[in-house]
Amino acid sequence: MDKMDIRGKFNITTTIFLSFLIVGIIPIIIVGYVNYNASKRVLEKEIFKKLIAVSDRQGEEIEGYGKEKLRDLEALSKMPSIIKVFEDFNTSFGYGTGSSEYLFTEQHSQLLLKNFKEIYDFHDILFINNNDEIIFSIAKEKDFATNLKTGPYRNTGLAHSYNKAKNMQKASISNLEYYSPSNKPAAFISMPIFSKGKPIGIISIQLTNSEINSVVNNYTGLGKTGETVVGEKAGAEFVFVFNLRHDQNAAFNIVEKMGSANALPMQHALLQESGAGLSLDYRGKKVLAVWKYLPLWKWGMVVKIDASEAFEAEKKYQLFIWGIIIVTLFGIVATAAFISTFISKPIKKLSQVTQSITQGDMDTRAPQIGTNEIGILAMSFNKMADKLVNSIQFHKDEIHEKEIIQTHLNKNAKDLSQVNKNLEGKIKKLNNSRKALFFIIRDTNRISKNLSAVNKELESFSYSVSHDLRSPLRALDGFSRALLEDYADKLDNDGKDYLIRICSAADRMATLIDDLLGLSRITRRRMQIVDINLNQLITPIIKELKKSNPARHADFVINETLMTKGDEHLLQIMMQNLMNNAWKFTARKPSTKITMGVTVIKDKKIFFIRDNGAGFNMEYADKLFGAFQRLHSQKEFEGTGIGLATVQRIINRHGGNIWAEGKVNEGATFYFSLGQN
Amino acid sequence: MSNKTILLVEDNPDDEALTIRALKKNNILNEVVVARDGAEALDYLFCQGDYSSRDPEAIPQLVLLDLKLPKIGGLEVLKQIRGNVRTEYLPVVILTTSKEEQDIIDGYKLGANSYVCKPVNFNEFAIAIKQLGLYWLILNETPRV
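The joint structure predicted for all components is written out below.
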């Protein structure tokens, strides 16, 4: 009992419900999870893409600004007017800054230098002579006229850049740091200046941080929390050189040690690395950051955005996905519950009915529910129950009937066996007939196959006959005549007579062959059935016959229009033969009478041709139409015996009939019908 | 009358003898060349095989062509005669025993100039040959190729 499997443990409703739930939930969770992960990755990628774009743009602008100022200073240091002014100050400075020479120089150069300062947007332009003294400054702050090696400002950015430029004889950029004479952060670029190949001192320009500040503090594309941080190394520490979005007092106020746990991206950047990632910023907050090193300024630059903001969209999406999953789950549960009750209800009902029938209540029936499989099951069940009731009743009746039948059966058994025997004999006969029929059909098929082969053979045979059989005849005739012509003097009358007989025999044979060919052509011809007026066919034949022997007294009687259907060419041949026949056998009568007409026999249109000629004995009527069959000698009437055979074949091809009636010396009548009518 | 030849294509020696006799009887004295089958006729006309040394310019004036011939049939010979530039206008008279409609149609389709049935009766045959000779050898004009 413990091992009963799950199908037995739960009732049908629960089983269907659970199955639905399992089938529904698992894919939803998998799809949700996969979707969430994929979109999270896409989202992060998007954010980093944005940050990198900002960092590239700002980095380029900051470095570009420095490079531009470097180029400006280089141009300045090579201008002859500047070199001239520098030399003038160099000389006049020797007389003291208050001297009239210095003031004169200052007065004459003021306009030029101020213009340059304005054009190039410098905070100050400073000249430093070879003795490290600041001999000129437009701003004339406290640093003016001090010595950069020994004076109070020997540790400033200006002094550092000156020293480097002097020592290396090339341009040098200082750090951006607080400059006390100006009381604000400043960066300096210094460059040696030459006159006629000799170094005459250093020219420096002072830059404020305002230009770069505006670049750094442009938050376009950085959302609500994004910002750009620029840092500078100062020994083991580093300092943020511009104010920040989150700290407007940051410039030079936020100082961190290298290696500290905060501001990790900046530390990476200052180690001249570039990269991107999730990290902690100077506030110790989680950020998505992109960092890089700016070599011209020796600055580290970090562009970053708070992780909380970056993932805000993601959180929303996550919530959305969860929402969908929960709604769908509710849907699945509801559907599962509905379907499971829907399916199981009729089954339960059915099972109740089954139980009551089993307990003997034969009148209970399942309710009608729909036409689906369950509905059909219920219906079938009901039918089965009906049948069961019927069959029980039937069995009762049957037992009763059986007893009656048994007595009858015994009585009939004897008769039956006799009938059976008769039947068996009949079946046997039937089988034999069927077999015979099968063989007949098979033979018929074989015969019709053979027949078409024979037909073909016949065709080529008649062609050969046409050609080959005539040639020897020609030779017979030809050479006989050659003998008659060329050797007449050597032949007696008997010899000549024989030769003449040979010639006429050959002639007859040729006619015979032609007639035979005509007969076979009739069989082969393809028929075209059209309406035909027989009168029109006969008229030229009559004319021809009369012309052949104008002396003969002949009467042709045709009083009706003889319309029929058939192949015109064949019917013409037929009429020609019939008329020739009549004409031939009336030749010995003093006057010829040939009548043609139509009569009706058994609802059939029958044509006839009647002559008053030699006639025939009805005993031989069946021989009339056979090929080569003749009822008269050649001497009496010439002929090949093919004419009427041809006529019969033509009539047969039309599906008609021909027969003849006659009496010797009193004439003959030929009757014919043509089937198509 | 020119002395141009008549090509008689005939496999039956009897018919050959009768034809030649009929020609002679009617005073047609042209040289008669006899080809006993279609292949020989073509060899003669196109100067190939046994006739390869023959002058190809010497084209017969008339061809009397039987249809039922060994090797190559008369209709095929006619087809090749009409397909060759040198012989395309050569008068060809089909002289045969066959009266089959189909043979007559085929002969004319392939460009025969005449179709004549050999009659069995020698007198009729002789008359036919006489008329043929008169017409094709004397009256008829062919283009000089």
